[in-house]
Amino acid sequence: MSRPQCTRCLRPFTHCLCALIPNLDSRTRVLLLQHPSEVNHALNTARLAALGLNNAQLVVGEVFEDLATLLNPPGYQARLLFPADDAQLLQAYAPDDQPLLLVVPDGTWRKARKLLHLNPLLAALPRVSLAEGAVSRYRLRKAPGPGALSTVEAIVQALQVLEAPTSFDPLLRPFEALIEGQIAAMGEDVFQRNHGDGRLG
């Protein structure tokens, strides 16, 4: 039998994160497209990002029928935050810049690529990327290499660049509490044995 859970953060009531989730405004609009396999993942960082940002929307699915509408909110220019050889490095807004609709696929790399494959409008968007060398605080999940970030970390880094000097670090508070809770639940010995080198893989 499953434990009663918070309907907002989807965590068990005993581990509810809502008190740590901020209420942040951003000039950038964030659209999170979440693969269904991520919804019930214990570390659902896309949901945390969507809850903490007033100008964000989380949509779950594989094929998004209303994607054309989602990608064209008035006053924004859509960009896909996803690696590509021709991706533009994110830079701070100039005073007259139109704000971005930052589209962020959420899932494993394989699932995220599948979302792009199934949604040609998504794949056709101009891409943007973060500067290399970012270090993830996500100590529990193997990543394909250095610089691989969780969804909420990638969003925070993107917003910090675009909207400097505004800080979006409060978005990471529930994420860090979630990781600490997971480590506590598995026990220090198990954590050190499986993740003790501090690297993601």
Total helices: the number is: 7
Classified by CATH, the class is: Alpha Beta
Overall number of structural domains? 1
Average predicted confidence as pLDDT: 86
Quaternary structure of the protein: single chain
For the record, give the distance between the C-alpha atoms at the N and C termini, rounded to a whole number: 34 Å
Secondary-structure-derived class: alpha/beta
CATH topology: Alpha/beta knot
Shape: globular
Q: Order of strands in the sheet with the most strands?
A: 2-1-5-3-6-4
Question: What value does the Rg take, in angstroms?
Answer: 17 Å
Characterization of this structure:
The protein is an alpha/beta fold. Helices cover 30% and strands 14% of the residues. It has seven helices and six strands, in the order βαβαβββααβααα. Strands 2-1-5-3-6-4 form a six-stranded parallel beta sheet. Strand 1 (29-34), helix 1 (45-52) and strand 2 form a beta-alpha-beta unit. The model is unreliable at 140-147 and 196-201 (pLDDT under 50).
